[in-house]
């Protein structure tokens, strides 16, 4: 995921969680969180235990 795409998804997540004018969409919040977590999960998985 590019830096631009990551920033866009973080901004959308921030808006969903913090903007009182925006209707909460729990499914979208979880989907964004999963997408944003994925690159970090791969990095952690490559470390030896």
Structure write-up:
Helix content is 73%, strand content 0%. It is mainly α and 49 residues long. Helix 1 packs across helix 2. The longest helix has 20 residues, at 26-45. It is flat, with a radius of gyration of 13 Å. The mean pLDDT is 85.
Write a short abstract of this structure.
The protein has 49 residues and is mainly α. The chain contains two helices and no strands.
* Overall average pLDDT: 85
Task: Count the DSSP helices.
Answer: 2
Structural class determined from secondary elements: mainly alpha
Shape: flat
Helix percent band: over 70%
Total number of beta strands: 0
Catalogue the unreliable spans: none
Percentage of residues in DSSP E strands: under 5%
Q: Largest beta sheet, briefly?
A: none
Secondary structure elements and pairings:
Blueprint: H1 3-18, H2 26-45
Helix pairs in contact: 1-2
Features:
73% helix, 49 residues, 2 helices, mainly alpha, single chain, 0% strand
């Amino acid at each position: 995921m590019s830096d631009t795409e990551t920033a866009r998804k973080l901004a959308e997540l921030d808006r969903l969680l913090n903007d009182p004018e925006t209707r909460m969409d729990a499914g979208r919040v979880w989907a964004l969180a999963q997408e944003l977590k994925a690159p970090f999960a791969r990095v952690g998985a490559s470390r030896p235990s």
